[in-house]
Amino acid sequence: MKKSMLIGAMLLAAAPAYAGETQAAPLPRLGADTQAWLALQTDPAAQAADVRPVPGEVAERVYQRYVDSFKFPIPEHFQRDSFVQGGGSGGGGSR
Question: Are 13 and 19 in contact (CB under 8 A)?
């Protein structure tokens, strides 16, 4: 432990001297890609031409399923046997 701390201290002490020897490359302008993606998202010309809404019958069935999900209370505990037959772990049993 002491040896690794000594090595770490030596590296930290040598870092400023080493950093002065090399010329650091200038950093690129950060955020240019992000700005381009945001501009693309707000550009009306980049929007999808044909919006495909969900057909009325399908939308109604989806909404009805959502409403029906509130008919039953959320149980306090789930029994494992109610989901997996035979108490398996789901790890590829014999079929």
Answer: no
